[in-house]
Design goal:
ABC_transporter-like_CS; six-stranded mixed beta sheet; Peptide/nickel transport system ATP-binding protein; globular; ATP-binding; 286 residues; transport; Rossmann fold; binds adenosine-5'-triphosphate; 11 helices; single chain; ATP hydrolysis activity; alpha/beta; 38% helix
């Protein structure tokens, strides 16, 4: 993004430079967010402003959806949330800590609470390792004793709805849906409080997408996990998000409760995303 962003809307309440920041509505959900990005900016190099004063919060046990088309800054925001990048401006806090500065033993303990579910689990799993070994390595990194790992792997496979026998398979021997469940199992190995899910279902067919979404909903109900759920597809986000932030060219154009945003989108860009979702017929069937 090289030029200042011009907003085509004539609705002044939709303009991020004039509209009130969504603090009041965010504050309504919970007093203390688990993840909070406040007025965050990120510039990769002069002229490439990936994020501009973005505020987004995920309360404990809740789901915040982040939508926007390709290049809007979603993955950059995910990397900031995970502490893989430092912001140029603003603050990022997970459980009160700056994730970029979590170091040492105490830092690792906090960091264990923050995990990632990628878009293409097949690419993030080592093809030379059996699926169970990948999960066991995550358990080992979290300090689970060797003698407990086999049972813990089996329990995690069961938790994500997989037959523990699949732990012996290599990634190439598993379906996309199975790989995504293993990615979730691996993320759960550290008993996280928040999962950052970056397009976790966009590489899956509709039926498998629904199954993975159901899995995430079930995990949240079971263990109070929070999700930052990132997608270009509003229809998918609608399935699980309590609130949605709409990002366009690095700026928040709209934020609100999912149902309200779905029923009465204020910004033309949100309306365009919704229309695209309707036209593509991407609303998952349940
Ligand atoms: N490492 C990088 N170096 C320079 N520019 C980058 C880098 N990563 C991302 N960008 C730029 O920052 C902007 C936001 O990119 P980002 O990947 O965060 O968007 P996105 O919404 O996740 O896109 P997609 O859905 O295609 O993954 C884009 O203009 C992109 O070209």
């Amino acid at each position: 993004m090289t030029e200042p962003i011009t907003d085509p809307t004539s609705d002044p309440t939709s303009d991020p430079t004039t509209a009130p920041r969504p603090t009041a509505s965010a504050a309504r959900t919970d007093a203390e967010p688990l993840l909070a990005l406040e007025e965050v900016g990120k510039r990769y190099r002069p002229g490439v402003l990936a994020l501009d004063r973005v505020t987004l919060r995920v309360p404990p046990g809740r789901t915040t959806g982040l939508v926007g088309e390709s290049g809007s800054g979603k993955s950059t925001l995910a990397r900031l949330a995970l502490g893989l990048l430092a912001p140029d401006g603003g603050t990022v806090r997970f459980d009160g800590h700056d994730p970029y500065r979590l170091r040492g033993r105490s830092g690792r303990a906090v960091r264990a609470g923050l995990q990632f579910v990628p878009q293409h689990p097949g690419r993030s799993l080592n093809p030379a390792l059996r699926a169970g070994t990948a999960v066991a390595l995550a358990l080992a990194a979290h300090g689970t004793p060797r003698r407990e790992r086999r049972d813990a792997v089996a329990a995690l496979f069961c938790q994500v709805g997989l037959d523990p026998a699949l732990a012996r398979r290599y990634p190439r021997e598993l379906s996309g849906g199975q790989l995504q469940r293993i990615a979730v199992a691996r993320a759960l190995a550290t008993r996280p409080r928040l999962l950052v899910c970056d397009e976790p279902t966009s590489a899956l067919d509709r039926r498998t997408q629904t199954q993975v979404l159901d899995l995430l909903v079930g995990l949240q109900a079971e263990s109070g996990l929070g999700f930052l759920f990132i997608s270009h597809d509003l229809a998918v986000v609608r399935e699980l998000a309590d609130r949605v932030t709409v990002l366009r060219q690095g700026r928040v154009v709209e934020e609100g409760a999912t149902g309200e945003l779905w029923d009465a989108p204020r910004h033309p860009y949100t309306r365009a995303l919704l229309a695209a979702a309707h036209n593509a017929g991407t609303t998952p069937t349940t």
